[in-house]
Structure formats: structure tokens, C-alpha cells
Amino acid sequence: MELDKKSIEAKIKEEIAKTLKDIQNLEEQVKPISPENAIGRISRMDAINNKSVAEASLRQAKDKLSKLENARSKIDDPDFGICVKCKQSIPLGRIMLMPHSNKCVNCA
Ligand SMILES: [Zn+2]
Q: How far is the CA of 72 from the centre of ligand 1 (A)?
């Protein structure tokens, strides 16, 4: 089956733009919480909790971005859309849903 590379590429670009925006937002949220910020002990705990959640999301977003960049650079490779594990072709629906994945549903 011939993959529709134009739509896949557009999708990857769209995902990259979205992920970059997420990273920007998350970087705002992981800024150090200043102690002189008179927000009280409980809300300070909340702020610290939110910050660690944001830090985890930020790591994920950066990971996703590098996978997307990788997928974009490989879109013209003959093995693009082939699962790296089982060597079966990944269904287009999955590529469009998760363009950063290089594994099929079974191997992911
Ligand atoms: Zn597979």
C-alpha cells in the first residue's frame, strides 16, 4: 500500500507545532517557586505537586518532539511506516494518530 506521505508529513508538522506549544507552556510551569511568594503552606504544596506533574509532562513532550523530528526526517525512507520490531507495515490510521511512533500497536 502506498502511504499518503503528503498527509503524513502535514500531520507530523502539525504535531510538532502543537508539541512545541506544549513545551513552552510547561516550561512556564516548571519555573522555580519562589519562597517569598506568600501563597501559604497548603497552596505551596499544591504548587510543588503541580510543578512535578508539569516536569514529567515536559520530559514526555520533549521526548515526543524528538520522535516527531525523527519521523519527519525519515518520511522518505523506504522503511518509513514499517514497525521497527516486527517489520510489518503500520496501518495509516495509527501513523496519523501517533506519527511519532515507529512501532505497530502490537509491539508498542
Ligand atoms: Zn510490530
A: 20
The series of mean pLDDT values per 10 residues for the chain, 108 residues long, is 81 97 95 70 82 95 97 92 95 92 94
Give the Cα separation of 22 and 63 in Å (integer): 12
Find the angle CA(24)-CA(11)-CA(17) to the nearest 5 degrees: 15
Listed by start position, the domains of the chain span 5-77
Q: How many residues does the chain have?
A: 108
Q: What is the distance between the alpha carbons of residues 22 and 65, in angstroms, rounded to a whole number?
A: 10
Measured in angstroms, how far is the CA atom of residue 82 from the centroid of ligand 1?
A: 8
